[in-house]
Write a structure and sequence with these properties.
There is one protein chain. By secondary structure, the protein is mainly beta. It has one helix and eight strands, in the order ββββββββα. The strands form two sheets. Strands 1-2-7-6-3-8 form a six-stranded antiparallel barrel.
């Protein structure tokens, strides 16, 4: 089964080299711009009422080899190997990124966001609002 995606836009960030973004969006206050293609701008209506957004992205700058086991940043100190699905590593069989960002503003087809961990030019597949009542697991 094949899946096809058509990006709805792209990111403009200060990160131009692989390895330069922080390891997680939550560790960054970097301000970036999400530029949405004009064909999708009507879909932004009402987005400005949400303080946080989920960005689903295509992590486009990937090596040809994508190992299924690796030492993620969380276990670098011990060298413990884990499966890629037990990590948040960007190199994955399907390099789909999921980032929670803070929405600073909406201006036409442009969103200003804080807290990105993505390279400049990263294709955006979808944007979804974050909801406190359903996006936090119950304790």
């Amino acid at each position: 089964m094949a899946a096809e995606f058509e990006p709805i836009g792209h990111l403009e960030t200060a990160y131009t080299q692989a390895g330069s973004p922080p390891s997680q969006a939550s560790l960054s206050e970097s301000v970036a711009r999400v530029v949405v293609d004009e064909a999708y701008v009507d879909g932004l209506l009402g987005l400005d009422r949400y303080p946080h957004l989920w960005l689903l992205t295509w992590l486009h700058d990937q090596p040809d080899e994508r190992p299924l086991q690796l030492v993620p940043r969380a276990t670098e100190a011990t060298g413990e190997v884990q499966g890629v699905f037990a990590s948040r590593a960007p190199v994955r069989p399907n390099p789909i990124g999921l980032s929670l960002v803070r929405l600073l503003g909406v201006d036409g087809n442009s969103l200003t966001v804080a807290g990105t961990d993505l390279l400049d030019g990263t294709p955006v597949l979808d944007i979804k609002p974050w909801f406190a009542d359903c996006d936090l697991p119950e304790s």
